[in-house]
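User: Hey, quick favor. My workstation is busy. Could you predict this chain's structure for me?
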Amino acid sequence: ILADELGSGKSSTLEWMTLELEDRYLSHWVSYIDVQSVNLNNLTIHSILNISTSDEIFFDELYNRKQVILLCDNLERLSKDKQLNLHKIIMKLKEAGIAQLIAINPQSSRLFEKNLEVISYKFAPFDEHERKEFITKKLNQTNRVYSQIEEFTNISITVHKHHFIDHIDLNNPMFLTLMVASANNSEGFSNIYLLF
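Assistant: No problem, here it is.
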């Protein structure tokens, strides 16, 4: 279970891992599902993974060999009833020996931790060096010159140190990306503060 806050990179990590697993485990059925887009009223693995009739026999063979990997995202966005429905399916998959990685916020993870008998992991926050490196990479993608990158990274670190925006976690990749997007508009760096 990957249990971390909004914007920490859970979805991006699952999407990246899906691609990596597909490349690495060619003999496995690897599925990334955003549970918001799944019909949870029909409690079958085929419906959840949107397995076509023509793929059912192939999928079932891999399923029986335990060659299925499921990456499940956005569980916290489901109603409690739907979370419980999905929880039943995840328990069935666990009993069948199917590998799963679940992304959820920390507040919703306890039920899954307890019943799946696993612990949750969360990302380590960026330290000052990693935050500066992340911002630099994002700004480099937009062809900023080095002096602008230095100015921006120093501003963001100063803002963070002085707690001008206590409620925003500047170690969070999503918020840093928003800061970079704000800096890239025609107004320049002054809008960093307006964003928050």
